[in-house]
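#lab-general

N.A. 3:47 PM
ok so I finally got the sequence cleaned up, no stray characters, all 206 residues accounted for. can someone with queue access submit it? mine expired

B.Y. 3:52 PM
send it over

N.A. 3:53 PM
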Amino acid sequence: MELIKKYFPDLSDKQFKQFESLYDLYIDWNSKINLISRKDIENLYEKHILHSLGIAKVIRFTDNSAILDVGTGGGFPGIPLAIMFPKAWFLLVDSIGKKVKVAENVALSIGLENVECRHCRVEDEKREFDFVVSRAVMPLPDLVKIAKKNIIKEQQNALPNGFLCLKGGELQHELQPYKNKAVLYDLSDYFKEEYFQTKKVVYLHP
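B.Y. 4:20 PM
back already:
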């Protein structure tokens, strides 16, 4: 929690409490369903919650923005972002039903009213959104192919509508088709922990 306070000192008491509650909830769920590797669960705030909030350093979603989280797993990055932006709306989708159940339960447990969870493939989701977010779920060209249809034309945010993807490691090959369009934000510019040295937010306006 200290990390969240350090980088986001202006959160309301309610938001702090919601972030604080995540630890026990994920520890409990992780003992039933292997969402996060056992050694990683201790680093939940750094490697999962703060990492998800990297997107909040790149953009502040305006009220009433709609965001689609593809391949959310147990709720990353969707749940941390939904806490951060209570007036935006988030749809969390995953093709693995038991993971969606976890995300749904966590959102319910902390009183998030701006989150809907759906067990489906993104190909089957027809609604439109301002942004599609994801966390290392698939190569960007694959994601663009299946989710481009979900991005609405009218825009209301500082960045034009598009994709915001949390990525790590070597991205040159993956970004080749978008070399003049994709913008990379180094998370090490925002977060000083070693874990973020190679982590990036990739923004693409398709």
